[in-house]
Amino acid sequence: MVRLAPAALLINVIFGSVTVFAVFGEEPTGRFAKMYEVIAASASVEPGEPFSTIKVEATGRVNTGGWADPELAAWSYIEAPSDGILDFDLMARMPPDGAMVTMALEDLSATVSGPMPPWVRGVRIHASANSTEVLLDGIENRPGLPGSEGGIATDELLPWPWKFFTPDADE
Q1: What's the CA gap between 71 and 18, in Å, rounded?
Q2: How far apart are CA 99 and CA 66, in angstroms?
Q3: pLDDT grade, residue 161 (50/70/90)?
Q4: CB–CB of 32/94 below 8 Å?
Q5: Rounded distance, CA 133 to CA 131, Å?
Q6: What is the pTM of this model?
Q7: End-to-end CA distance of the chain
Q8: Which of 43, 52, 79, 162 has the greatest CB tally within 10 Å of its CB?
C-alpha cells in the first residue's frame, strides 16, 4: 500500500497533478494533470424543455506522448460566479512512470455536455500555460430551469455531469 505524507499530497496539488487513489487502500489507478495548453474551444446551447443543454468541446496540447483519457472537469461553485462564466480544467491521464514516450507536442480533444445552469453566459477552459474563454450567443431567450432560482448545491451522486447543479423537473 502506498502512503503519502500530507506535505507530499499538498505539493502534488500545488504543481497541478492529482494522484487518484482507489477506495480501501488499493494501489493508485492513475494520475491526472492539466494539459499544457488550450489550442481551441467551443460551446453551444441546445434549447429544450424543461432545461437547455450545453455542449463544451476543447482541444489541448500535451508536451509528450503517452497522455490518454482527456476530459473537461467542471469547477464546483458554492455561489454562481458574478461573471457568468462556467470554468473547466482540461485534463488528461499522464503517462505511467518510467514509460518510454515521444518527445513531441501532441493534441488531445475532450467533450462534455449537460444541463445548463441559468446563470451561464460563457465557458472558460483552463490548462497549465493558458486559458481561453468562449461567450455563448443567443442565450437571452432560453427557458429558465425549474427550481434553479438562486442555484442549487449538493454532493449527492446525480445523473448530471456537474454536481453543483440539479434541475428539479417536477416543479
Answers
A1: 14
A2: 8
A3: low
A4: yes
A5: 7
A6: 0.66
A7: 48
A8: 43
